[in-house]
Structure formats: C-alpha cells, structure tokens
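Researcher: Here's a chain I'd like modeled. Treat it as a single chain, no partners, no ligands.
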Amino acid sequence: MSGKRDPLRGYLFIGAATFLWGVSATMGRAAFTGHLPAWLGASLNSSLPNSLKNIDPLILSQSRATLSLAVLFPILLLRRGPAQLAVPLRDALRFFLLGVFGIAASNYLYYLAIQRTNVATAIILQYTAPVWVLIYTALRSSQRPSSIKILAVALSVAGCALAVGLVGSGGLRLDAVGVIAALLAAFSFAFYNIGGHSVLARYDRWKVLLWVLFAAALFWIVVNPPQKIVAAHYGLGQWVFLLLFSLVSVLGPFSCYFAGLQHLEPTRAIVTSCLEPVFSIVITALVLGELVRPVQTAGIALVLGAIVLIQLPGRGEGPDQMVLEPVE
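Model: Modeled as a single isolated chain. Structure tokens:
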C-alpha cells in the first residue's frame, strides 16, 4: 500500500537516525576510552570501562546486527506471522547483498579504518559517500546533477572534515590498508542508500530491515562462529552493553533511516546523514564535557548549510525528484 511522499518526514527520520548514531558514537567513545560522565557514579566509572575494553571489535560489529535481529524477529513474527515475512528468492538475494555488502561491510570496514588510521581519517573518507551517490545517480539518469546538489555535497564533505578535526591536531593519518578500508566503507554506505531506496519501493521498512539484518547476522556467523564468542567468556555487564549498543546503533537508527529513504531520494538522504558527526560532537560536548573548537563549529555550520541547500530544486528539477512511492 503506497502512501503520500512527505520530504519533511523523510528529513525527520534521517535526522533521528543520525542522532542515534551520534549517541552510539558517544557511548563507544565513553566506554572504550574510560571517560564516562561523572553523573554515572564512581563505582560504574571504575568497573565498566575496564570490562568493555576486553570486547573484540569484531564481536562489536557482529553483535550489532545479531542482537538487533534477535529483538526484531520475534516481534514481527508475533505481529505478522511467518507468511507475511516471507519474500521471493530473487528479493532474498537482494536483501543478502544489502546486508553483507551494505551494513556488515560498512560497519567492519569503518572499524578497520579507525584501527589502521584514526577517527578523523576514517570519518572523512567514509563521508565521501554522498559524492559516489551523486555520481551514480548522474550516470544512471544521464543528466548532469544540478549545481545546487554539487555544492551541497561539497559542503557536506568539507563540513565533516572540519567537524571531525581534519584541520588541527587530529589531521589525516595515511595508511594504505586503512585508507582503502575507509573508501570501501564509503562505497558500502552509498550502496545501501541506493539499494535500500530501491527495495523500499515494494516492501515496508520493517521487512527490509529484518531480512537485511538476517543476511548480515548470517554472514558474521560464518566469519566468526558462535564457539569463538563463547570462548571469549564475556560477563553479564558486557552483554548488557552490547545489547543496548546494538539497539541504539543499528535497530533504532536503521529503522528510522529506511523510513527516511521511503520519502527522500538517495542524494538528499545521504547528505542529511552527514549530521552524524555533528551530533557526535554536540552530544560528546554535553555529556562528556569535551570542548567544541571554533573549527568544529564552522564544520557544523557547513553541514547544516548543505542540508538546507539539498532541499532546494535545481534548474529543471521539481521540488523533490523521486522514483518511488513510500510503502506504509
């Protein structure tokens, strides 16, 4: 059943997704660096960070998809029944590609890029994704993208670069494997924006999310079998953190993001997603008390300007060029 397109709802959904990703980034930064906010209490500050530092980054990537699937599947099964969740084999293959080469790949490659380079390098290279989406849509439509879209994409990438500290003490840290991983993460990010937009033409976002998470979880089980996870001997506190982290970083934001893709074309959606580092900086400043430098403020302003620009129709374009109706 098709509903009316509503760009405002699309921006709100994408904004909610990026906010949750910003919260998850702050959670990860707080826990893995040991800098938890004082209001959590001295006992938690002294015990939680040390236990979380023992979590393997591969387990962190795997648990995000697997635990989100474990929460979502029984809810949808009870509400809709098995027959309503089934999809044709051809579409199941598409979901598999989205889950593996979209969500799983972008997640793991991003962590690998951070490990081999630094956060600034990984984020700025990953957030070249709007460029690749713009190029793809231009090649597919055989039309030159409007100057407004080009400017918006350029501003979003530049804003992310300033916001994450590319200029200043952070800077780029070049490593061949890390740079390749970050660029591949950008391609994966662009891929699930374009591919997700396509499958949402025929399926509601919950079914899409279910099958994409199933594909990602299945992939991780093959890569990292359950016996290896059992052998890690994680405690209750670690599993609680992994569950909360998966809900905040995957299940919540991706359900919102897919909802946004039902109302926005991929270029507009992915430019708006550049709010993620902005939210990360602001939330970290408010919760952890980290100072926001002037150059970061300038980056935030550029990202916000890009989001405003991308809403404006270019020459020869309607107010919102869409190729599908959202499924409600």
